[in-house]
Amino acid sequence: MNKREKALFKLGKKHQKWLENTAINAASYKINGNSYYLVNYNGKLSNQVKANAIISLDSNDDGEALQSVKPHIYYTISINNLIESGSHRAQLDYSVWEEIRDYLKAIVESGVLDGWNHAVYKRSLNIIQSMIDLQYEIIQLWHDAKALDNNVEERGFFTDGDVEKALHYVITGSLIQYKQFKDRYENCRDFDVIYEKRNDSRIKHFKVDHKLLKGMTSEAAEQQLKDSLDSLTHNWNVSHRSESEIYDMLMTNYREGLDVRVREIKDVLLRYPK
């Protein structure tokens, strides 16, 4: 630790209780040029956050310290969610989608089907390709979030602009997932047809694991897709909403959830200032 970090740790540890560890967020939030840091007091046995504090080496203004709680919670929760959940999403194995995509593409481009059957295969091909393309957007979003966090750590503080960017990334990630599942759910029964025709004389020489096709049928996937969509949209009826409207609804709901956490910190967990 450098001299400033040692002074911060000493100040933060003043409010630590028995069987707790003190952890100070690396990045501060500035108000009127004064840097305010969020402190977590974690249980030594459970590592659960037992309490919080806001400390500063620059000021004893309790009003400013309390004012910094909201941006600290907004940024910390959002960036942690992005890094943790984004890492999981970005590393998902979607080679199955690529295998199914290649199977559908070979059939569509071969011209062995026409009319309604061709339309079903073409629609499913477009949906699977869209899911793959959106997965690349998820990966890029994760990299953007990591870059934001790295820049904040190097700078040593975050701004309101950084907070808004983190919130935008969180909601954009949810919207991307919604887009991945929506068309797939609405056209889920197309794969009932595709699975049934797997042994059609015009199709059976195109190779794919038939278990993968069965896993895409409505019987296997429809309820899971619906549950995922309901979870992402909080069981709202968004069937007639535009993407921008859904984005705004998700953002409003997310901010409300963060505000609940801010009130909890201030009313229950904040040891200093009181």
Question: How would the blueprint of this fold be written?
Answer:
Elements: H1 3-13, E1 20-24, E2 28-31, E3 34-43, E4 49-55, H2 62-67, H3 69-90, H4 95-110, H5 115-155, E5 157-158, H6 160-186, H7 190-196, H8 210-215, H9 218-232, H10 243-269, E6 270-272
Parallel strand pairs: 2-5, 4-6
Antiparallel strand pairs: 1-3, 2-3, 3-4
Helix pairs in contact: 3-5, 3-6, 3-10, 4-5, 5-6, 5-7, 6-9, 6-10
Which terms would index this structure?
alpha/beta; 6-stranded mixed β-sheet; elongated; 274 residues; 11% strand; 65% helix
Structure description:
There is one protein chain. The chain is 65% helix and 11% strand. The chain is α/β, with parallel strands linked by helices. It has 2 domains: 3-68, no CATH class; 76-267, no CATH class. Strands 1, 2, 3, 4, 5 and 6 form a 6-stranded mixed β-sheet that branches. Helix 4 runs antiparallel to helix 5 (115-155) and helix 5 (115-155) runs antiparallel to helix 6.
Short note summarizing the structure:
This protein has 274 residues and is α/β, with parallel strands linked by helices. It has helices spanning 3-13, 62-67, 69-90, 95-110, 115-155, 160-186, 190-196, 210-215, 218-232, 243-269; strands at residues 20-24, 28-31, 34-43, 49-55, 157-158, 270-272. The chain has two domains: 3-68, no CATH class; 76-267, no CATH class.
